[in-house]
Amino acid sequence: MTTAIVVGLATLAGLIVLTFGRRSRLGDAVGLAGLIAVTLVAATIGRDSLVLGTDAIVGTGYLRLFLVLGGSASIILVMIGLVVGSPTSVAGVALLTLAGGAMALSVTDPVVAVLASTAAAVAAAVIAADRRSGPRITVAARALRATVVAGLLAFGGIVWLATSIVDPAIPGSDGIDGAGVPATGAIGGFGAVTFGPGLIGLAYLAVTLGMAIRLGAIPFHGWAARIAEATPPAGMPATLALGPAALAVVVIAWLDGSVGTLGEPLVLERGLILVLGALSLVFGAVAAWLHDDLEHVVAYSLVQDAGVILLAAAALDPASWAPVRMWILSMIVVKSALAAWAAATRHAFGTRRIPELGGWARRSPLLAIAFLIVLVAIVGLPGLAAYDARAELIAIVVDGPFAAVLLLAALAPLGYLGRILAVGFGPPSGIVRDAPTSRLSWPREAALDVAAQKPAEQAVREGGPAGGSAPATLRAARRIGLRLVTVRRLGSSLLGAWRANRAPVAATLVIVLAGLGFLTSAGGFGATRAAAESAPIGGSVDNSDLQGPGQPGGEPDASDAPSGDTPTGSPVASEDASEPLATAPTDAAPGSGGTPGSSPGGSPEPEPDPSAAPPGASPPPSFEPVPTASG
Amino acid sequence: MTLLIVASAAILGIGAVVAASAREGRVAVLGLAVAMVAAPLVADPLPAVTVLAIRLTGSVLAAYLIHAALRSEPSTLGTHLGWPVQLLVAIAAGIIGFGIAGEAALGFVGLGPGVPAGGSPAAPGAATLALYAGVAAGTATIVLAVEPIVAARDGLRLGIGLLLALTGLTVFREALIGPTDGLEHILIAATTAAVAAGTAVVCLGAAASGDGLVLGRIPRSLRARRPGLRRSLPASDDAAGGEPR
């Protein structure tokens, strides 16, 4: 129920904010208040569920963390946006993205999840089209096309595979006809004629490519790079990180629970996705290095992250579940911090070109501190949860020298972010030298205002010239009037102080966000446990299903693994390492026994698991516990 | 019932052809609206009245949003193919869809009476008809959507393509998997309205920037035909974000 409230509140507030113009103080206030309210309500999400017909909206620890971290990052980004002058729509887009994310991560039907994520993603086009100039409109149209096509591909793939329902309640749906004769090669649904491994592969490719397009992975990065130019930096995380992240979680859950359980090796298809992931990792870093524009660096940094997520899709292994969800959580906050830093730096120095930012770190120590924290959170250190998650994902999907290359590429942010840092400690450029100081200061005029007010107040208090022989009531009225003037002057002084300190205030906010990002990257806030939880997609609303390791008091052990009826496959990391794709493709169904977390190295031709109905299939008539294959 | 399903599928197809091929923006939007309204009716059993109302609201809202955005610039650059070709493409895709439905019916069970498990669709009832009509109409609509999505020269046609694809997929899904539940219908309606709103924003922006509805570079042939169109020059960089290079 709480999740439904979050969805409703965020949608309502987001739509209200978007109805305001490009710049509206009321819109800013509504947006900020809406974000704070959504984040606070999201923090109370528990293990509740709301059954709606044959679907349900289920609260999980991961959902709570996703929304709280995403909401907190958005609040700080909007505050920075207020400081640097971003349009009001940034808050509206963030709210709608949170609403879509909340729905996508909580609903049991993957089609509904994809639709929710897609509907929210359309806001990306709105923010890009905020200023009506020809090139920006073209960018907005590209964003609209990319996000909707991505959603439709995922929708189509899920529907296609869902036609192979293996439902023990329906005689013959397992491909065995009424006479008990198995239909050769049948998985169900279409039967022997139509539904072969090639078509499963097509469904896998459609869904995964949809995710790749949405994430802006290479070679689908064009729209993401362009939208980075057309969108204010404070709006970039909602468009390029938070929204795509929700779709990625849904897709990975669906892949593990449906394609993964069918036992097809899909070597070609997974190989293709692996190549796309590797290309995104390597060329995302190269592009971020080559570009001189801060916002491009942020965008290509996100392209790199897309590569890591695609590796998990290529793995088709339950062992990749927890690491990729951990990585996604970290990505949301850390990349928000990087975007916030870019926005604050651009505001402080009036340029976004790296060669013109010589000496920025020496001129603005606060921004330098924030950047250092962001750098450590992005590159990571052994022992930090995000670093380990990335290394684990690479180890799952490949081994040998290829793994070393990918790991090296994953550490490439050290190069392109190090370059920015080196420029910052280099000789100051003219632009940086002429920029106002980034240190906190109290403006001289404001101090004079307050000082000048004091003698007048003193005179009235002592019955001096302002009071004199006037009656007591008049003197009191004068005192009140003087106090009002004082309050007004104090207000204008504070306003002056605010104007003089925008840059350090923005830098301080970036430090706060960077700290949040670092803590998340380190596995703080219970991120690691929450990442190992089961996903509601395709699952039944069974309370025992939700008492996963991410719940308070829950321990991440194998017994807590989600039941096999949750086709998301699941979550808890397998103790058995899977075969890397590069050496021996996993030819058994991950969780083919319906036991998430079980080794995928089982029989090469597993029996169809009656309990492992793919998500998107006809939902069960009621939300009752479904017996798991593991008992 | 069977008549309603067949009529709805035919109306969906015709609306999709009109939407995909009309050069007059308002006619295209009318075709789109007809297709979107007919889509939920290609189902057996028919959705509940409340569900139909939700879908109808979403479709009408979507059509209205796009229509409202076309007030200043009502004409599109049209299709590359022309309506006769679009019609033939739709018919061909519908036939292919019919074939897919036949394959599905051979192994598809749980469709209701008349389709024995693993058998042939010997006794076509309303459910079987919904399968054939839905898959055929859905395939035709999806195929018609490809050209505007891939090669759209203006925001309106792009939006029409995206909405046709969404409509076609929902019909396809309903026919192959069975009745959709209420939450999914709500999300379909919301997504339809959201995509239409995005399309309207793009159309309004393009019209305001003086390019009609055109996206990107204006073709030379079109420039000769419509000299009123101009390409706005990139504005200077500003605090809210620079111009795309």
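Chain B has one domain: 2-218.
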